[in-house]
Write a structure and sequence with these properties.
The complex is a heterodimer of chains A (222) and B (53). Chain A has 222 residues and is mostly helical. Chain A is 80% helix and 0% strand. The radius of gyration of chain A is 19 Å and the shape is globular.
């Protein structure tokens, strides 16, 4: 059943991505101040939001895992963390490539960028804890604690622009600062990336399922 | 016009990374499925009952 859902979602994701690319490069007008490079916004923002979503999933699943000790929750948390790290890497890179032509520098140590880098480091640490602790169950528990504590940084990144004086652009999406065509394009991009996230998560979970099955078979063989 | 290079770099890097990750996941799945098939065959030889995947 999961395979047919996965195929359907993958096709849907591809179609949404194609629609998103059309809207980014053809439909949406060029922004007046920053020019064509502003179109990075339509990848940068969805990548950031989906990274936050991924770490929210890690947070919830880590809490449930620590309470119920059911390894399935740990599998979802670890899969989501891996995808979250990839999305965070991509939004840091896209932000840097956007910053260079606009600010003239690749990076500045301002609150939002610094908090985002800290977020990336926290979840790299989450993955390292899982890999390097010898006892897998202990590693999962330690990682769950990192996943729960580390989630504190997500609202810090999200609210940094409101809390501190920062060079990062102020929020415009919920403040009505986007033209309708830009808002529609952003919404399509967010939807496309959400489906992509789901596809990646289901693929990762499918692999972990098969790994568990292999472990069971080895136990029977021994 | 120079800024278009940054725009295409973002899209290029994002697509490359995501494509590479999907490839790693799919190849990983293929390898795992082959291992399951191999192990099922061993189990069958040994005459042990197991559910098929």
């Amino acid at each position: 059943m999961r395979t047919s859902y996965l195929r359907g979602l993958t096709v849907l994701g591809l179609l949404l991505m194609l629609a998103a690319l059309y809207m980014i490069f053809v439909y949406v007008p060029t922004e007046a101040t920053m020019g064509a490079v502003q179109r990075i916004f339509y990848f940068h923002v969805p990548l950031a939001w989906l990274a936050f979503m991924a770490f929210f999933i890690v947070f919830i699943c880590s809490v449930v895992y620590l309470v119920m000790r059911n390894p399935k929750w740990d599998l979802v948390a670890s899969s989501s963390a891996e995808i979250g790290v990839i999305f965070t890497s991509l939004f840091l890179i896209s932000g840097s490539l956007w910053a260079k032509p606009i600010w003239g520098v690749w990076w500045i140590w301002e609150p939002r960028l610094t908090a985002a880098l800290v977020l990336w480091i926290i979840y790299i640490a989450y993955l390292l804890v899982r890999s390097y602790v010898q006892n897998k169950e202990q590693g999962a528990r330690l990682a769950a604690v990192v996943g729960i504590a580390g989630f504190v940084d997500v609202p810090v990144v999200a609210l940094a622009v409101a809390l501190w004086r920062t060079d990062h652009p102020s929020p415009v999406i919920f403040e009505g600062g986007l033209a309708p065509s830009m808002l529609y394009t952003l919404l399509v991009c967010i939807t496309a990336f959400s489906v992509l996230f789901l596809v990646l998560l289901l693929l990762k979970l499918a692999n972990k399922d098969i790994e568990s099955e292999i472990k069971q078979i080895y136990k029977q063989l021994i | 016009m120079d800024n278009l290079g940054f725009l295409f770099a973002v899209f290029g890097i994002a697509w490359l990374v995501l494509f590479f990750y999907v490839l790693v996941l799919i190849r990983g799945q293929d390898r795992l499925r082959k291992e399951v098939t191999k192990l099922n065959a061993i189990m069958k030889e040994k005459g042990t009952d197991k559910p098929a995947h």
